[in-house]
Amino acid sequence: MKALELYIHIPFCIKKCAYCDFLSGPSDEKTRENYVELLCREIEECRGKIEEYEVVTVFFGGGTPSVLPGEQIQKIMSKLRGVFTFTKDVEITLEMNPGTVTMEKLIAYKKAGINRLSIGLQSVHKEELKLLGRIHSYEEFVHSYQMAREAGFDNINIDLISAIPGQTVASCCETLKTIIDLQPEHISAYSLIIEEGTPFYEVYGEGDGADLLPSEEVEREMYWQTKQVLHGAGYERYEISNYAREGYACRHNIGYWERTPYLGLGIGAASLFEEMRYTNPSDIEEYQRCFGEKFKAEKLSIEEQMEEFMFLGLRMMNGISRRKFRKAFGKEIEEVYGKQIEKLKKLLLLEENGDRIHLTEKGIDVSNSVFVEFMF
Q1: In the predicted structure, residue 208 carries a pLDDT above the cut 90
Q2: Mean pLDDT confidence for 88-117
Q3: What is the pTM (predicted TM-score) of this model?
Q4: Rounded mean pLDDT of 284-296?
Q5: How far is Cα 342 from Cα 129, in angstroms, rounded to an integer?
Q6: What residue spans define the domains of the chain?
């Protein structure tokens, strides 16, 4: 059977963070109940369309999926298992924020089959958390983390953000070292992006406000220190912003970068299925009218597929495979991208290692510029 990933979008949170541009927001109990019902209806719409596939990973993202009580997560998981075939070792991740879980919830999540948690911490510093608009303290995070361990979760990721306004290299490293002491299996370390339409953009997006952000040199130093500190503690970087102990790299995210087919369920969720890309409507009323449309979307062109193969695959430290390119497209990679590869090798931005082509350390620093070279 072919591998398939599932993404489940839960668009609810207690309070939207100042930097967040995701499809999410506060909700009441009735809204959440109605949404779970719609989600189960969309899952049912997939029946009969996925017989050749088996689910290798499931990811509950948001928003804050841990806003939902255990019974609702169990209901969604029960419907998923009734419609899809799961592999025995399926990875099932649920994002949670500190302060949104109880031991009762965590036990229910575990019973539902959740076997990996991703906790959004971002920083250990009170001032930085407040600036970001987070609703929790570091102490609340530690309490939630310890409860998760007590509930039996042995695969936990912690999300961190760097390049926060006013942040220093020292405070960034302090956050890293404090988290390492807790020994999570996985750490995602992202650099803050100022997105249009967010409160952060109004303050820091342009003009004098942009000067309050760490300089490019300071941000780069944070990036290098992140790699050094985490590597020294036994965390290997397997993707530009992701680090894991041996055996704990996130299989769901790797699937995205390797273009494993996936179905996005819930409002605003994206799918890549049978080389067709589709994004569910973000309007709830339109969403419930379009459950089956993802299976009728326009197929990506070969050129679009090649572009994605390159710029997604090159995000990973081991890069892309010549053999997989040949298998996917019936051509040698040099036939399509020979000039670009040679140019980037001369600039010391790409390296070759047998079957693999990957970014150099210098290439990682300017990765977006590298990716543009592979756009038709």
Answers
A1: no
A2: 97
A3: 0.96
A4: 90
A5: 44
A6: 2-257, 301-376
CB neighbours (10 Å) of residue 208?
8
Question: Which one is the CATH code of 301-376: 3.100.10.10, 3.30.70.20, 1.10.3720.10, 1.10.10.920?
Answer: 1.10.10.920
- Retrieve residue 295's tokens: 């299976």
- Phi/psi at 125 (nearest 5 deg)? -95, 130
Domain covering 2-257 in this structure, CATH number: 3.20.20.70
Contact 351, 358 (CB under 8 A): yes
Has residue 338 got a pLDDT over 90?
yes
Using 50, 70 and 90 to split pLDDT, how confident is the model at 339?
very high
CB 238 within 8 A of CB 231: no
Rounded CA separation 118/186 (Å): 9
The 10 Å Cβ neighbour count of residue 108 is: 20
74-to-37, 192, 255 alpha-carbon distances in Å: 13, 33, 24
Q: Is a pLDDT exceeding 90 seen at residue 376?
A: no
- Structure token digits, residue 303: 């050129």
**pLDDT number for residue 316:** 97
Virtual torsion, Cα 152, 153, 154, 156, nearest 10 deg: -160
Q: Would you give the end-to-end CA distance of the chain in angstroms? A: 33
The one-letter code for the residue type at 339 is K
Give 178's pLDDT tier (boundaries 50, 70, 90): very high
Nearest 10 degrees: Cα torsion 12, 153, 187, 80: -50
According to the model, what pLDDT value does residue 209 have? 86
